[in-house]
Amino acid sequence: MEQKQQEKEDEESMVCSLSNELNPCPICLGPVKQEAYLDRCFHKFCYNCIARWAKYVAGSHSQAQFTLKCPYCKSDNISIVYECEDDNFQRHYINKDPVERTFFSKAHKFRLRCYYCEPGAIYDKFNVQRFWKLHRYLQPNKWLQVWLQREIQALTQEEDVNVVVYHILGSIESFTRQKEREPSKRTIEENREDFRALISDAAKPFLIGRTKRFVNEIELFLVSGLNIEAYDEVYWQCVEMVTSGAVHEDDEERLQEVNKQPPYLHFFDEDSDKE
Predict the structure, then answer these.
(1) Domain spans of the chain, in order of start
(2) Residues of the signal sequence (predicted)?
(3) What are phi and psi of 68, to 5 degrees?
(4) Comparison of pLDDT for 117 and 213, the residue scoring more
(5) Which CATH number applies to 2-99?
(6) How many CA atoms lie within 13 Å of 155's alpha carbon, on the beta-carbon side?
(7) 6: Cα separation from own chain's centroid
(8) b/e 161-186 (16+ beta carbons within 10 angstroms → b)
(9) Measuring CA to CA, how many Å separate 168 from each of 5, 117, 151, 214?
(10) What is the mean pLDDT of residues 147-167?
C-alpha cells in the first residue's frame, strides 16, 4: 500500500511539474511558485511576481488605483487570490480593505474553489451524449436559475447578478425555442456545439477567463438531472478523489450539511429514456 501511495504521489508530482513547464508565469516566464490568480480573468502567476506588478502599477499612478489590469490580457481585476487549498483561499484586494460578503456561503466558496482545481471524475458520472441524443435539452430545469445565480455570484463575488443570470437564461430559452421549431435540421453534435457557443457568447463579457469552464459546468449540471444539493454532493466527492484524500473538519461539516438535504431528484420522466 505504501509503495502504491508513493508511486501515486510521484506521478502527481511529475504531472504538476510538467504543467508548470507548459504554463509558466507570464511575468517571470519560469515555473509558477506559490500559485496566485487574478479574480476576474483567472490568469495564474507566481504570487511574488503579481504582487510586485501590483506595487509597480500603484507607484506609477498619482491617484490610488482600485483595480489591477492583468499584465497578460489587460482585463480589470479587483483582487489577487492565493494560498488555495481545498475550498479555502486568501485574497489581497487592490488598495482597499476586504469587503465582508454576507451572501458568500460555504457553498459559494466550494463552487469558486472548483474553478481553481481539476474537476476529477465528474465527467465520467454523467452521460452527455445520451442527454443530447434524447433531446433532453428541450426539457425545462426548475433548479437552473438558482444554480446559475449561485454560480455567477461565486465567480464574480458580487451579490446582484440578476442581469447576468437573466441574460444567460434568455439565451438558453432562445436556443430551446429554435430547436423546437427545427428539430431535425442539425445533428446531435451540431446541436451541442450550437448550445455551447451560445452560452459562451452570453457569458464571456462577464466571466472572461473562466468562460470555457463555465460552459462545461452548466452543461454538466443540465446533463446530471440532479437538484443542486445532490449535484454538489457528487461534485464534492469527485473533487475529493483528486485532492488529498484526507477528510478535514470543514469537509465533515459539509458532508453533514449535504446529508440533511433531500435525496437525489431528477427532472427527467421515466418515459423520456425511450426514443
Answers:
(1) 2-99, 108-273
(2) none
(3) -130, 125
(4) 213
(5) 3.30.40.10
(6) 28
(7) 30
(8) beebbeebeebbeebeeebeeeeeee
(9) 44, 24, 12, 12
(10) 91
**Helix (H), strand (E), coil (C) string for the chain:** CHHHHHHHHHHHHHHHHHHHHHCCCCCCCCCCCCEEEECCCCCEEEHHHHHHHHHHHHHCCCCCCCCEECCCCCCEECEEEEEEECCEEEEEECCCCCCCCCCCCHHHHHHHHHCCCCCHHHHHCCCHHHHHHCCHHHCCCCCHHHHHHHHHHHHHCCCCCHHHHHHHHHHHHHHHHHHHHCCCCCCHHHHHHHHHHHHHHHHHHHHHHHHHHHHHHHHHHHHHCCCHHHHHHHHHHHHHHHCCCCCCHHHHHHHHHHHCCCCCCCCCCHHHHCC
Q: Could you give the CA distance from residue 265 to residue 13 in angstroms, rounded to a whole number?
A: 39
Alpha carbon distances (Å) from 49 to 68, 71, 120: 13, 11, 29
Query: Grid coordinates standing for 119?
Result: 474537476
CA quadruple 156, 227, 143, 274: dihedral positive or negative?
Answer: positive
- Based on its alpha-carbon atoms, the radius of gyration of the chain, rounded to whole angstroms, reads 21
